[in-house]
Write a structure and sequence with these properties.
alpha+beta, Ribosomal Protein S8, Chain: A, domain 1, two-stranded antiparallel ribbon, 10 helices, globular, oxidoreductase, Oxidoreductase, Mal/L-sulf/L-lact_DH-like_ah
Length: 345
Amino acid sequence: MTDDISPRFAQDLVRSQVDLRLAEAGASEASRAAAVKAMLHASLVGVDSHGVRLTGHYCKMLGGGRLNKNPQLKVAKRGAGSALIHADDGLGHYAAYKAVEVGIDLAREAGVGAVGIQHSSHFGAAGAYALAGAEEGFVTFATTNTDSMVALFDGAQKFHGTNPLAFAAPVPEGRPWLLDMATSSIPLNRVLLHRSLDKDLPEGVAATPDGQPTTDPHEADMLLPLGGVDYGYKGAALAGVATLFSALLTGTTLDGDFIPMYGGDDISTPRNMGHFVLVIDPDKFAGRDVFLRAIGRYLESLRGSPVREGGRVMAPGDREWAEMDKRRAEGIPLDPDTVRFLGLA
């Protein structure tokens, strides 16, 4: 999350400037609309690492040729409840939102819609796509694998990416139940922030190049999987789930084979990223009304559960929706580089 002392800007102003910069870089109207929507979601719920701060990176990749400015998505239905989308090397957000639409259509007929995406690129926050399905009344899962930066449990090299898993579900009243989690202990940006502040990292979240845990952000070369030193086998296995769905089922790129997102001179070669979206229609199981009543009771019970002194129980999504309300009222905090790039200085 961006520091509280960062300047804040109204979401409509941020949206218009992000759209302007992507348009100037040549992104088609459809692909940039998807990217703006997904980035703004991330910035509003506090996932700043995947929010509008990425606009400059995407513009650079559009200019270098890595990203297709006018991708033509191709959908191939592979079964009653499955499809593959060829993303034509465009902005990953465009293909991911399309996958949700295709998944919904499949789920209405088959009960489930499983959609793999090939020849894509970085798609930002996975939760944006899970949320899109839930807002239409469907239980939705979205994931992607990314370039290696996380060690295996007891490992001494970067193996998996941060590989997010995102789930969302409709609720009877209010905004959806939403879980969007990386399978690493912390995001890489947290290490970079601690470096800039010359502040120690928490125990068990990062490691040196030889795999030894460290709290020194200047020595940290890789992240540890969710669960840290003692229970990181859980996070490492969950990272593999993202790779299984996103790369293995789609025939795309393994974590260790990616052209790095950042660094290097090559910004013209597409990365052939894979993503995966699963959409489930409650009507084809116990029924939508039954599901909504059940999740309503579940959330009421969860939020009403006793708490320890000074504690607070929250359902997945509660923190994000509170942050969204705050940022809509007070503005979106932006780091100095993003402020300059968007022309907000």
